[in-house]
Amino acid sequence: MRLFQVGAVLAVVALCLTGAARAQEDGKILYETKCAMCHGKSGVAKPAAQPSKNFDDPSFQNAWGVDAIVKITTDGKGKMPAYRTKLTPEQIRAVAAHVKTLGPAR
After folding, report:
1. Count of C-beta atoms within a 10 Å radius of residue 67
2. Euclidean distance between CA atoms 11 and 34, whole angstroms
3. Residues 11-67 pLDDT 10s
4. In the chain, where the domains are located
5. How many angstroms separate the CA atoms of 42 and 56, rounded?
6. In the 8-state DSSP scheme, what is residue 103?
7. Among 105, 99, 106, which residue's Cα sits nearest to residue 42?
8. Residue 80 β-bridge partners
9. d(Cα 60, Cα 66) in Å, to the nearest integer?
10. DSSP string, 33-75
11. Number of other residues whose CB lies within 10 A of the CB of residue 45
């Protein structure tokens, strides 16, 4: 019985880790299909997105957290449209988490 309980716990942990990896992958795919056309695949803003910040800039990465990126993505700002009706809150959060990976390695 104890072995079954340990196995069940390990299965739940594995599913949680798989879910986190899946969300990160989904955030990258969503970013590349919805955001990269203006913000660049590597996070360097294209001329159409100016004066957007470059997401790979350490000053951006230090100043902007996931929650702030979620808010801008949800509500829009300047030329950037709101994505609240285009993506789910979970998808927006996954994109924001991906944006945080575009900065320099710490």
Report:
1. 9
2. 34
3. 444 444 444 445 556 999 999 999 999 999 999 999 988 888 999 999 999 999 999
4. 2-101
5. 7
6. S
7. 99
8. 77
9. 11
10. IIIHHHH-TTSPPPGGGTTPPPTT-HHHHHH--HHHHHHHHHH
11. 17
Can you tell me the distance from the alpha carbon of 36 to that of 56, in angstroms, rounded to the nearest whole number?
13
Q: Is the peptide bond before 51 cis (omega within 30 degrees of 0)?
A: yes
Helix (H, G, I), strand (E, B) or coil at 80: strand
One-letter amino acid at 16 equals C
Strand (E) or helix (H) holding 31 = none
pTM of the model: 0.75
59 burial type by CB count under 10 A (0-12 exposed, 13-18 middle, 19+ buried):
exposed
CATH architecture label of 2-101: Orthogonal Bundle (1.10)
